[in-house]
Amino acid sequence: MPHDRGTLNDARRMVTIGEQLSAKDVADLAIGHAVVHVDLPRVHERLGRARAVVETALASGMPTYGLNRGLGPLRNSEVPLDLMGDFQRFVIVSHAAAIGTPLTRAEGRATLLARLNTLAAGGSGASVALFDGLLDLLTHDVIPVIPAQGSVGAADLSQMAAIGLVLLGEGRAWLPGEDRVVPGAEALAAAGLRPLVLGAKDGLALVGSNALSVASAALTHRRTELIAQRADLVAALTIEALDANLSPFDEVALAARPHPGQLESGARVRAALAGGDLAEGRVYPGSVQDPISIRTVPQVHGALVDELRVLDEMIRIELSCAPDNPYLDVDRGVFISNGNFSITGLAVGFDSVRVALAHVAMLSERRVAQLVRELRHSVTLAEQIQSTISTTGYVTPVILAQTASALVAQVKHAATPVSLTGTTVGDGVEDHASMAYPAVRVTDDILDVVERLFAVEALLAATIIDAGQRRAPRALGAPVARLAATITEITKHNDVTSDVVSWVTEALRRERRGDDHSEMRAPAVPEPHAIHDQEVARHDQLH
């Protein structure tokens, strides 16, 4: 019977548009663990005041970027008043250049939330109709199909235009409640919505936003944060398997150099081992001092935690600011040209996170090598041969060290900075780009590899723990005991390593969030093709 111990059973909470949002808020809304709320009268009043400035600027004829003047290289070209409505559609259609595999609905929901929250600040000059139109898409789950490629992190122009097309009754969107992509007009009609008529400035207010980059940053940050927590759990499995010395995790020793990340990492490892014979001193460690890949877990894992903490604050600001260019200062009644569309801080932040991830992965790969060595040396060749004949379940391959080496090579390669790769576009006017969106996507992609690496380490550690328990049973820390038992059970029902690793990844996720392992569902197959499988995979990555 399903239990209510873990967070899978948490009631949906409320996320309020117009207030400060966090990466977790965005992730929860994206995967359906939160519902959106907005104080419409308050937001409408704020947008109305800003809109009055837009109308005044139009009437005065004052040259204003994106209002009565063109965009980018056409910034000095006048937009005739009689073409103002057509200009809004022109902005959307002429920027709809995104290509590639569609992003999941989770990214789509997150992007809508991110843009709604910054529009609510009133600094864009967007119309009430645009705000309400985007809100309708989100609340009716009419999620535009957003291609994965096109942004250089200086406003997600082409991908935000994909959202604009759906508002106009064009483009493509997911049919509400179904795993089916249909024309935008059909999706709107199914939800009882009509195409939107955009007002002056609305085109730029929609496409001139980094909402996709920021939303993707929030989701990837949340996922990385959860993986960092699982890294400590996996390390604890290895520590138990190898009878490692626990002195490097001593609370007093770590507090002598009190970086928050290493304190947090050390505490998680101690909690995973607590109550076991090794932690209680009833089993002696195998060495006075272990290899650095064990000794420096708190320091190296903590470096990743500290990078994520800095990035978290940056994301909070991006989610809750007024980043438009030009920025509408309602109090002074003026548009101010600026560079707030540049999110170089996010790009550099994710580049730094990937470097920290690479160090964490390097430690994991070295611990895998130690586990393989232990597995080889603790069982004779004759016994290993006999096990392949007599064992009815899965035999853990000793060459998983090679697999881990291949995985860590990918992670280290991905640590190359993406933020330095931008080129000049816009006829030379746009001569710098943050490359924030590509930096985020590379980070999210490499997290798949990191999760597989951790699963390989956990599988090897559990195999050694199981063999030790059969020889001489001893008490283990509760999380370690649960995981080791679950992984051993997994190997009894699967005989293909790729399947075993997928199941172990799911077990690590469940243990981190406190869910019952007996309720594990089959993990989504790698590189899912069905839209439903993509949604399940994305949900599990973020939860």
UniProtKB/TrEMBL annotation:
Q: Does the keyword Lyase apply?
A: yes
Q: Which UniProt keywords apply?
A: Lyase
Chain spans, region Disordered: 511-543
The organism sits in which domain of life?
Bacteria
Q: Which SUPFAM superfamilies match?
A: L-aspartase-like
Question: Which InterPro entries does this chain map to?
Answer: Aromatic_Lyase, Fumarase/histidase_N, L-Aspartase-like
**In which residue ranges is the amino acid composition biased (Basic and acidic residues)?**
511-520, 529-543
Pfam families under this entry?
A: Lyase_aromatic
Query: Can you say what this protein is called?
Result: Histidine ammonia-lyase
Q: Which organism is it from?
A: Arsenicicoccus piscis
Q: Lineage, please?
A: Bacteria, Bacillati, Actinomycetota, Actinomycetes, Micrococcales
Gene name of this polypeptide: hutH
